[in-house]
Every structure is written in C-alpha cells, then in structure tokens.
Amino acid sequence: MEKNDFYELMREQEKKKREAGAESTADLYRAVRNRFLRFCGKETFSFKELRPLQVTDFMSSLRNEGLCVNTVNSYISCFRSMYNKICRKARYKPKIHPFEGIRLKREETVKRAVTVKVMEMMARLDYKDCPEQAQAAGLALFSFMACGMPFVDLVHLTKDNIQKGGRILTYHRQKTGTLIQIQISTSMKYLIDRYADTRSPYLFPLLSKETNHEQYKALLAEYNRQLKKIGERLRLPVPLTSYVFRHTWASEAYRQHVAVNVISQALGHTSEKMTHHYLARLDPREIGNANELVINKVEKLIRKEKIPLFMI
Fold first, then answer.
1. Which portions of this protein are annotated as coiled-coil regions (predicted)?
2. Other beta carbons less than 10 A from residue 216's beta carbon
3. Tens digits of per-residue pLDDT, 22-35?
4. Where are the domains of the chain?
5. Is the model's pTM score more than 0.90?
C-alpha cells in the first residue's frame, strides 16, 4: 500500500476517532471512504490526484443515490475535513484546492416536533400486550421530561448521576461534554423507580459494561422501530423517532416564551456562543422552572390518573 493512498489515510483517521471514543464520527468517516471507493472504482488512489471535477462528480453521484441535501453536505464536509488533515500532515499544498468554490447550504427540513397532546396520548396508550412498546414509550417520556435528553445520554445514565438527595440529575452530554443539571420531577422519579435494577449501575438497564458501539446502534434502531409502531397506532402524520422528543421539548419551551439561552443550556447546545461567553451557568432551579412549564400537562396527567405505564 503506497503511503499516499487516500483510502488508507482515511482509514487511519477513522481508527484514531474510534480510539478517541468518537464512534459516530468514525462511522461517518467509514461511510464516506466506502462511498468514495465505490465512486472511483480504483483499488488505490493518491490524495494528490484529487481534482475539483472529481469532487463535484462525487457530490452528484451521492445525490443520484437518493441521499438528501443535508446528508450529502455532511458527507462532503467530512470528506473535505479528512482531505485537509491529510494535506497538513503531509505538508502538501495543492495548486488548485479540490474543494475550492464548494458551498454547502443546509436545506430546511420538516419539523420533527409533535405536540404535548401527543405525549399525553403516548402516556395513556394501552401497552399490556406490547412490552417492547411500553419500554420505548417510557424512555421517550423520560427523554421529553428531562429537557429533551438524547437517547445516547439517557441509556448511559447511572445511579451516580442522581445527586443532592435524589433531587437533581447531573450528567455530561456524550456528544459535546456539556454539563447538564435537571431537577427530577415526580414523573421522572416514577420512571426511574420502574426501571430500577439492583444488578445494573444504569438507571435504565439496557447497556452492560461490555456493550460496544455496534450493539448500541442496534439498541437505538430497535428503539426507533418501536417508536414508529407507537406513532402508527396513534395515526400520527410524521414518524416518531428518538429525536422527536428533543425537538418537542424545545418547541414547547419556545412556545411557552422560555428564553432562548435557557433552552440552549437545557439542551446542552454549544452553538449559542454569545450565551456561553457572557452568561453565567444558570441555577438548576431556573431550568427546572422552564421544564415545569413544558411538561406541566403530562405531569398533571400522570399524578391524577392511574396510568399503567407509570404503575410499578
């Protein structure tokens, strides 16, 4: 294998990402490499051979495969990043940069949020003969009530994340490392108790210490399959996925006139640069007050009615 082989150099970058624990980025690197290999049809390819026309043709081939604009943009952005890193390491400066003039404009997507009414409908649904759906619904409701917590963070929660006498849930986002602190509501406590297992360190014992990234992805895929079935039972116009509940919390918080910087911090975003530079970290009570506004209807429903999903 020649030292300038683009495929091998991309594979090395993927390996480094995996060693650093950035599995999702490594998966993206692998997908881009495999697609470019298929596009070129050559067993070896020097990164110094890459030309602007090849990049634009590669973009066209991705679109022709039926990939959406944002997915193509993600692939090309990743492709460019890998190429630039390889050039810097090799101290190579192309006469004409192969990505010169390429502008990646994000396409507006259909909103993935549902209404709080849908959350109530999910809580009321009879899951007696559908234990897999019951589990998915419980996780989804917890995700919503925990300020739109992502699935990856939810399944990695341990008993050590519960602090201050069981009142505060404290964790760092897997994706960004951002510190999140949330008051534990009554309904969140119901769900934590429902899934408690003394044999597991996790609040929701779906993982084990031996779980690898591929097994995690299979777990997420199964979660989304069950959510889709729930959405079909409720005859929703959009499919339910793990990210719907994050969007739903954010949308409802905005509708309730919660300040954008509070929403940003509750979600663990790092893109609100001015917010993070100029505002002190909010007291968990402030995020708690915002969360009360958002989950109020679901909380009342669970407290006043005997919802099977929350009966231990």
1. 206-233
2. 18
3. 888 899 999 999 99
4. 6-90, 116-310
5. no
